[in-house]
């Protein structure tokens, strides 16, 4: 099997760009998934693996996983440790990395079931926050995620890794704005997460189905026009001196309240 050792190899150069550039990921409609578990998750979720990279050390350590992923991927290359460090996005890489065809699940929102629960994210910027939200959403049985186009890239390597494979399975749609999405889906009961004193406590809210709860930017919250578009406003009551919660923490609390 061919062993790639040059950073100038076209496949290596493309993978480095996929790691670093959201623009390149959108243009090529590809993204990277790294680690033994995430690469196996891609197979279980029927994602299309264009290229599978592995180090010799990883092959020796995970021979069964290597054979499985190799048989599923279109192309497989062994790479040196130095080259893998170049394409890797982790501090302690396991030696497995896949280049995967970008997923399109927009059509899953064409018909909204009357029992659906969605979470909408507006201008979320931290990939770690987004990955955690996706992981929690899948775990709690949320039916899908709506994101404004100014959110961080859904296929950012940190999002893919933090979601623990939820990016492969959770329905999602990226819209120009959450406001536009709500306008087009008036059948959804919409709930805005705010920190204002005139909002109801989340513990007093009955999330009437089908519904969507909207969470805003980590620092600035939701846009005024999006809040106005929502049917209801709610807040998470807090004791102590904290003025707000981390976006992923707030989302976890909200989603739990939605499904309980």
Care to give the gist of this entry?
With 260 residues, the chain is an alpha/beta fold. 38% of the residues lie in helices and 21% in strands. The protein folds into 2 domains: 3-101, Ribosomal protein L30/S12 (60s Ribosomal Protein L30, Chain: A, 2-Layer Sandwich), CATH 3.30.1330.30; 106-259, SPOUT methyltransferase, trefoil knot domain (Alpha/beta knot, 3-Layer(aba) Sandwich).
* Count of helix runs: 12
- Span from first to last CA? 52 Å
Number of strands: 12
Low-confidence stretches are: none
Which homologous superfamily in CATH is the superfamily of the largest domain? Answer: SPOUT methyltransferase, trefoil knot domain
Largest sheet: 7 strands, parallel
β-strand percent reads 15-25%
Portion of residues within helices: 25-40%
- Mean of residue pLDDT? 93
How are the strands of the largest sheet arranged?
Answer: 8-7-6-11-9-12-10
> What is the correct CATH architecture of the largest domain?
3-Layer(aba) Sandwich
Assembly type of the shown chains? single chain
Radius of gyration: 20 Å
Name the CATH class of the largest domain. Alpha Beta
Query: What order do the SSEs take from the amino end to the carboxyl end, as H and E?
Result: EHHEHEHHEHEEHEHHEHEEEHEH
By CATH, the topology of the largest domain is: Alpha/beta knot
Number of self-contained structural domains:
2
Layout: helices, strands, pairs:
Blueprint: E1 3-4, H1 10-20, H2 22-28, E2 30-34, H3 36-44, E3 49-55, H4 56-61, H5 63-72, E4 75-79, H6 81-87, E5 96-101, E6 117-121, H7 127-140, E7 144-148, H8 157-162, H9 166-169, E8 172-175, H10 178-184, E9 189-193, E10 200-201, E11 211-215, H11 224-229, E12 232-235, H12 247-259
Parallel strand pairs: 1-4, 3-4, 6-7, 6-11, 7-8, 9-11, 9-12, 10-12
Antiparallel strand pairs: 2-5, 3-5
Helix pairs in contact: 1-2, 3-5, 7-12
């Amino acid at each position: 099997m061919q062993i790639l050792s040059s950073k100038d190899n076209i496949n290596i150069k493309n993978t480095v760009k996929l790691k670093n550039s959201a623009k390149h990921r959108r243009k090529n409609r590809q993204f990277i998934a790294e680690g033994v578990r995430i690469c196996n998750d891609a197979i279980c979720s029927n994602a299309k693996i264009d290229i599978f990279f592995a180090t010799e050390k990883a092959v020796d350590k995970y021979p069964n996983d290597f054979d499985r992923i190799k048989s599923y991927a279109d192309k497989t290359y062994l790479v040196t440790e130095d080259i893998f460090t170049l394409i890797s996005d982790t501090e302690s890489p396991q030696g497995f990395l896949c280049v995967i065809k970008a997923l399109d699940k927009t059509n899953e929102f064409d018909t909204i079931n009357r029992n659906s629960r969605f979470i909408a994210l507006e201008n979320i910027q931290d990939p770690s926050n987004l990955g955690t939200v996706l992981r929690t959403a899948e775990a709690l049985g949320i039916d899908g995620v709506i994101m404004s186009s100014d959110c961080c890239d859904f296929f950012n390597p940190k999002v893919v890794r933090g979601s623990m494979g939820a990016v492969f399975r959770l329905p999602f749609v990226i819209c120009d704005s959450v406001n536009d999405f709500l306008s087009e889906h008036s059948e959804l009961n919409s709930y805005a997460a705010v920190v204002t004193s005139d909002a109801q406590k989340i513990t007093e809210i009955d999330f009437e189905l089908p519904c969507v709860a909207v969470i805003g930017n980590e620092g600035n919250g939701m846009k005024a026009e999006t809040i106005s578009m929502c049917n209801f406003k709610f807040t998470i009551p807090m004791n102590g001196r904290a003025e707000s919660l981390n976006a992923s923490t707030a989302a976890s609390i909200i989603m739990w309240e939605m499904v309980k």
